[in-house]
Design goal:
The chain is of the alpha+beta class. The chain has two domains: about 250 residues, no CATH class; about 45 residues, no CATH class. Helices cover about 65% and strands about 10% of the residues. The chain is built from ten helices and four strands. The protein has a four-stranded antiparallel sheet with strand order 1-4-2-3. A hairpin with a 4-residue loop joins strand 2 and strand 3. The protein starts with 7 loop residues before the first helix and ends with a helix.
Length: about 325
């Protein structure tokens, strides 16, 4: 047996859950294939339109069908990227549910953990082996998916049907946040599984807990890094590629009035804002340069939560099985 071969509780963990692990690898391969297909589909559409000597906005009647085919292909390619992004957003939820239920709670519920503990495997080592396998899968597969996603998204169908870096499914699909999300899912799933000790209930609670964390961070995301503020006129032209988190008009006293107060009723929104005392437009926004600061701050928060959850999990294990 090679020195790199799995031994002891690590081998047992892989053996017990090999089907689930193979499924995870298969889903990773499917995601990579989907993203590569999207990029190739987009490139093929560009080449077909160029070969026909047409452009999307050509007035030549002979180009009508070529332009339509190009638009349909680019739209389909974009939808593939969006579905891949949704899948990336679900990774921490599925990871947490798997750890909480089949990997930990089921053994505690059925009592099969006792056999491992009678084979010179301590409770702590048992839990470490349960964590090591999914952690290795996460740090291997998720970065790969993130890199391929960024390649496909940034160079594929985004020119005609753009999706922006701050959209939830795009933001959580590349950079450091996807890995941190998955690690947080592992940690929360572990803690929930040890606390609940019932397979179905642990899976359900892990899904709720992970979704709650993701939703809370989504709501807090605009404030994780100070936005830039612009004042003046025609600001939308200056921040067209930025994430606008607040906009409206400023009064003489410096009070901010948001556009949401004037989006109903008679007259134009601007007349309404001026009637409320607005004298200049303002926009709070995150430009593209804020992507990495936002990512790194959110990653730090997620890793801190994961560390706290794992610390609590080992404390629970020691308390119940000294």
């Amino acid at each position: 047996m090679s020195a790199l071969a799995l031994r002891g509780p690590y081998w047992v963990t892989v053996r017990q859950h090999r089907r689930s692990l193979w499924c995870a690898l298969a889903l990773t391969a499917l995601g990579v294939a989907l993203l590569i297909t999207s990029r190739l589909w987009s490139d093929a559409a560009v080449e077909a339109l160029r070969a026909a000597g047409c452009t999307v906005d050509s007035l030549d009647r002979s180009c009508f069908q070529h332009a339509r085919d190009y638009t349909d292909d680019q739209w389909s390619a974009r939808k593939m990227v969006e579905r891949a992004g949704l899948g990336m957003l679900l990774v921490p939820v599925l990871t947490g549910a798997f750890l909480a239920g089949p990997m930990i709670a089921r053994e505690l519920e059925s009592g099969t953990y006792k056999l491992a503990w009678t084979q010179s495997v301590s409770p702590t080592r048992w839990l470490v082996s349960k964590l090591a396998v999914p952690l290795a899968l996460v740090v291997t597969c998720v970065p790969l998916l993130g890199l391929v996603f960024h390649w496909s998204w940034s160079t594929g169908p985004g020119n005609d049907f753009p999706t922006y870096w701050y959209e939830p499914t795009i933001y959580a699909s590349f950079g450091t946040v996807p890995v941190a999300n998955a690690l947080m899912g592992v940690a929360l799933g572990t803690l929930v599984g040890l606390l609940v000790r019932r397979t179905v209930a642990a899976m359900a609670l892990a899904v709720v807990a992970t979704t709650t964390v993701l939703g809370t961070l989504y709501l807090l995301r605009p404030g994780l890094w100070p936005p830039q503020t612009l004042t003046g006129r025609e600001l939308s032209l200056r921040v067209s590629d930025s994430w606008i988190v607040a906009d409206g008009m400023i009064t003489e006293s410096g009070e901010r009035v948001g556009w949401e107060y004037c989006r109903s009723g008679t007259g134009t929104a601007r007349d309404c804002m001026i009637g409320r005392g607005g004298v200049a437009d303002f926009v709070d926004h995150h430009p593209g340069s804020h992507f990495w600061p936002l990512q790194l701050v959110e990653t730090a928060v997620l890793l801190a939560l994961a560390a706290l959850a794992l610390l609590a999990a080992f404390r629970v294990l020691r308390a119940r099985h000294p």
